[in-house]
Amino acid sequence: MPSKKVEITSIQLRTETRDRLYRLKFRRTYDEFLEELCELYEKTQVE
Question: HSE-up of 42 (CA within 13 Å, CB side)?
């Protein structure tokens, strides 16, 4: 079965921001956490 190609990028964060994200993401990958955060943000913009 061929594996799905996933594009990975990097973002620049201050150390303080990275540390806050780490504490908030609890048992999720950064990608999962940021995806969830984006979805929550988009929902608040619609309302």
Answer: 6
